[in-house]
């Protein structure tokens, strides 16, 4: 069995990276594949008896089979919903690229059939004063899944993100159009949605993994109904067997 691993990034914050990642993991589980997921940096968390917990990281952990300890899924958790490097500074924590990469290497060493590492915000969110999450994807040598938040400005953000990923020497394995703005499906925007999606397909030369509408109940199963895993599973793994 091949071991497929990808880095999930988005065109901005709040574009549905976790929602899409959970749905892809759900699809992998439905195929009988083992799954693993990591969110190395998470800002915006509640304190429980076990410690700080981030909702996105909990959602990813719920789609891991076999299950993984929370600390492996999300080794760096911060309470305020702000940029991780600023949250770390306020918490007196020292973030560095090696410190963030090490637990993700450990997670990938579990050799699940299908693994996802989810970034925070967009492609160049800082880890420290010298490195960004793009450097983490480079260090882990992972192909990238780009989640495009379909709203005003999506074409520009998508092209810039795609070009930055390629400029950093990594390959976009696939992209997802996620309709985060419900108004895009309403008149008069609805008549232009197909044109916007066609423009994305023209400018993003990678497989489209799906177009996800705005859903009232975006469970992993509901989102997964609009996605395909095939281009990812049939791709030759970059990571050594």
UniProtKB/TrEMBL annotation:
Could you tell me what reaction this enzyme catalyses?
(7R,8S)-7,8-diammoniononanoate + CO2 + ATP = (4R,5S)-dethiobiotin + ADP + phosphate + 3 H(+)
Q: What HAMAP family does this protein map onto?
A: BioD
> Which CDD domains does the record cross-reference, listed alphabetically?
DTBS (cd03109)
Active site (catalytic residues): 39
Highest taxon in the source lineage: Bacteria
Q: Listed GO cellular component terms? A: cytosol
What are the entry keywords?
ATP-binding, Biotin biosynthesis, Cytoplasm, Ligase, Magnesium, Metal-binding, Nucleotide-binding
The UniProt annotation places substrate binding at 43
Species whose genome carries this gene: Halotalea alkalilenta
**Which residues participate in Mg(2+) binding?**
18, 56, 118
Decide whether keyword Transferase is in the record.
no
EC number, UniProt record: 6.3.3.3
Question: A biological process (GO) annotation for this entry?
Answer: biotin biosynthetic process
The family database entries (PANTHER family) matched by this protein are listed as:
DETHIOBIOTIN SYNTHETASE
Does ATP-binding count among this protein's keywords? yes
The record's listing under InterPro entries reads: DTB_synth_BioD, P-loop_NTPase
A single GO molecular function, which one?
Answer: ATP binding
Metabolic or biological pathway, per its Swiss-Prot or TrEMBL entry: Cofactor biosynthesis; biotin biosynthesis; biotin from 7,8-diaminononanoate: step 1/2
Which proteins does it associate with, and in what oligomeric form?
Homodimer.
Functionally, this protein is described as follows:
Catalyzes a mechanistically unusual reaction, the ATP-dependent insertion of CO2 between the N7 and N8 nitrogen atoms of 7,8-diaminopelargonic acid (DAPA, also called 7,8-diammoniononanoate) to form a ureido ring.
Name of this chain's protein: ATP-dependent dethiobiotin synthetase BioD
- Cofactor requirements of the protein: Mg(2+)
Q: Where in the cell is it found?
A: Cytoplasm
Please report which protein family the annotation says this sequence is part of: Belongs to the dethiobiotin synthetase family.
In this chain, ATP is annotated as bound at 56, 118-121, 213-215
